[in-house]
Prior knowledge:
Elements: H1 3-6, E1 27-37, E2 40-53, E3 61-69, E4 75-85, E5 90-97, E6 102-108
Antiparallel strand pairs: 1-2, 2-3, 3-4, 4-5, 5-6
Amino acid sequence: MEGSELGIGADAPPLHPGIAPLSYLLGAWTGEGEGGFPTINSFKYGEELRFSQSGKKQPVIAYSQRTWKLPSGEPMHAESGYWRPRPDGSIEVVIAQSTGLVEVQVLNIL
């Protein structure tokens, strides 16, 4: 995905002032990790998060996340949603997971 598609870079639309405090998130982030729990074997995984402008004239950041098994690349989990900064400094977050679970959160940033 090109930077302009993520809402970053020279070709991106102007940044909505309402998402400016979170603009450092815009882009694609990848990493690797190791998971574990007492009842399962440890496992290695890759993860990608993407944050982009919604393309509308609203202060909304589109979000997506996916994980996969390492080294096979087999998909493990995916979710997507929206982050909406509010004038009071809080952030409304709505996320739908591939398992059918939906999260609605309000984050208070100090």
